[in-house]
C-alpha cells in the first residue's frame, strides 16, 4: 500500500526526467523537439533553462529575473517558439513570473492568431497558462475567498511550484492598468471559445483551454504545472475567488448553447465533451445552483439513462460464438456449471449505458459530488437503486458507489443503500474493494444512522462474532481487513489504509465501547507498533477526539503506552501520537511522560523528530526543575481555558512568554 502511494507521487518526476533525457537524445540526431523547427543554439539555450529550473531556485527573485530574460529572448518570435515542444515547456513554467510588459506583449501576439494557437499541441499549453496567470493577476489577493463547503486542504511542509507561482501573482503589486488588461484577456479568450464551440468541443488541445476559461469565469483556480499530471489530484487544491457578476453570465452561455445541440445526448460518452460537461457542473455549483439542478437533470434524463444497446448486441454475439466453438470442440461443460453460470448472468442487473463507459462514469462521479439533495435522490433512484451491490463489485463503477455514499444527504435513501450493500460487505473485503466499506462506514457516522448494524456487519464479515476469544481480535482484524483465520498467521505491523479509516469512523460512533475495549485489551508493545505506522497513528487522533469515548478510557490508553513514549517520539508518525496523548493527559500523567522522555534524552536528541519533541515540551526546563516546568506548562495551556477564567489583560504572547523565550 505504501509502496503504491510512493510510486504515484514519483510518477510526475520520472516523466520530467524521461522528457529531458529523450530531448537530449533526439538532439544528437538533429531533432530539436517536436513542432516548429528551432536551431541548435536556441535548443541548447532552452534546454539549459529547463535544467536550471529542475535544479531549483534560491528565491522568487531568481525566477523573476530568469523569466524576464527568457521572454526577452523570444521577442518577435513568440508564436514560432511557443509552437516548439522544448520552448513551450520553458515558457509555460516561467510565464507566471514575467513582468507586465512581457505578459502584455504575449497577450497581443497570441491574440492576433488565436484560432491556430488553440489547436496547436504545444502553443496551446502556453495559452492555457497565460489564461491562468491573467486570471490571478486580474483578481488579486483581495478576491480570494475561503471554501466552507469543501474539505480543507492538508497543510504542506514546503510550498510547491503551484503555490509559489500563485502567491507571487496574487501578492505582487501590479498597476491597475495591467490588472484591467489581464481581466480583459480572460473575457476575450472565454468569448472566443464560446463563439467557436462547434470547432473546439472535440479538439484535443482547445478543449483544455475552454475548461480553464469556464473555471476562471466563476473564480475557480486549478493550477496547471508543466511536467506534472493534473486532473483529480490537482483539483483537490482548487481555490475560489470573487469575480465580476458579468463573468458568471458569460459562463452560463456555455451550457445554454450546448444543451440545444442534437449531439448533447452523446457528450458523456466521448472523452473531451464528457470532461467539458464535468467542468461546467463544477462551475455551476459555484455560479448558479438552480441552473445546475436543471442541467444535471437534463444530462441524467437524456444521456445517462440511455439503454446500452450496443453492449447488449455484442454480448449476444460473443455468447453465440462461444457456443459454436464449444460444439466444434466436442467438449461440453458439466450441466451444473452451465446452469450456475446461466443463473449468475440472469442475476446481473441490466445497467444503463452510463456504467459501460469510463468517460461517463467519471462525469457521473463529478455530478454526484456537486448535486443538491433533490438531484442526488433522483440520481440514486434512477441509476443506482437495485444495482448498488452489483456496481460496488465492479472495478469501473465501485468509485461511483463511494461518491454516492460520500455525498448522500437523505437518511431514508442512505438506509436503502445500506440494506442493499449489507449482504455484500464480506464479498467486497475479499475482492479488495475496501473503499466502498470505508465510505459506507463514513456515511453511517456523518448521517448518524445504522451505526450498531455497521459494527455487527464488520464483526460478521471478519469472522469474529459469536466467540469471546475471537471477538477480542476485532481491532486487529479491522486494521488489517483480514478475517480471524488469516490474521493468525500474520505477524506484520502492516495497517491497511481503509482499515485505519474504518476504525477511526467506528471510534466516533455513538457507542464505540466494543472497539474501545478491544484496543485497551491489546498488549502495549503491539499498540505501540500499530501507532508507529503512517495509517495507524491517526487512530489515536480519533480515540482522543471522539465525543463518545470516556475520560477513563483515554487515561487508560495513555497509561498503557508508558514505557513506549521514547520509541514513539523518535519517529515521524509516533511523535504525532505522543503529541495527542500529551495533549489529552492530566497533569500527573504529563509529568510521567516528561520523566520517561528525559531519562533517554540522548536517544531523543539523536532523532530529528525527537529533537522537535524535546524543544516543544521544554524538557531542558524539566531537567533543571520539574516544578518550574509544570508551572510554565500551566501558563502555556492557560489560553485554552474559558474566557471567564483568564485575566482580561493577559495576552496570548504573555502567556507563552516563559515557554517560547
UniProtKB/TrEMBL annotation:
<dbReference type="InterPro" id="IPR040000">
    <property type="entry name" value="NOP9"/>
</dbReference>
<dbReference type="GO" id="GO:0000480">
    <property type="term" value="P:endonucleolytic cleavage in 5'-ETS of tricistronic rRNA transcript (SSU-rRNA, 5.8S rRNA, LSU-rRNA)"/>
</dbReference>
<feature type="region of interest" description="Disordered">
    <location>
        <begin position="633"/>
        <end position="661"/>
    </location>
</feature>
<keyword id="KW-0677">Repeat</keyword>
<dbReference type="InterPro" id="IPR001313">
    <property type="entry name" value="Pumilio_RNA-bd_rpt"/>
</dbReference>
<dbReference type="InterPro" id="IPR011989">
    <property type="entry name" value="ARM-like"/>
</dbReference>
<dbReference type="GO" id="GO:0000056">
    <property type="term" value="P:ribosomal small subunit export from nucleus"/>
</dbReference>
<dbReference type="GO" id="GO:0030688">
    <property type="term" value="C:preribosome, small subunit precursor"/>
</dbReference>
<dbReference type="InterPro" id="IPR016024">
    <property type="entry name" value="ARM-type_fold"/>
</dbReference>
<protein>
    <submittedName>
        <fullName>Nucleolar protein 9</fullName>
    </submittedName>
</protein>
<dbReference type="GO" id="GO:0000472">
    <property type="term" value="P:endonucleolytic cleavage to generate mature 5'-end of SSU-rRNA from (SSU-rRNA, 5.8S rRNA, LSU-rRNA)"/>
</dbReference>
<feature type="region of interest" description="Disordered">
    <location>
        <begin position="316"/>
        <end position="347"/>
    </location>
</feature>
<dbReference type="Pfam" id="PF22493">
    <property type="entry name" value="PUF_NOP9"/>
</dbReference>
<dbReference type="GO" id="GO:0000447">
    <property type="term" value="P:endonucleolytic cleavage in ITS1 to separate SSU-rRNA from 5.8S rRNA and LSU-rRNA from tricistronic rRNA transcript (SSU-rRNA, 5.8S rRNA, LSU-rRNA)"/>
</dbReference>
<dbReference type="GO" id="GO:0003723">
    <property type="term" value="F:RNA binding"/>
</dbReference>
<dbReference type="GO" id="GO:0030686">
    <property type="term" value="C:90S preribosome"/>
</dbReference>
<dbReference type="GO" id="GO:0005730">
    <property type="term" value="C:nucleolus"/>
</dbReference>
<feature type="repeat" description="Pumilio">
    <location>
        <begin position="560"/>
        <end position="599"/>
    </location>
</feature>
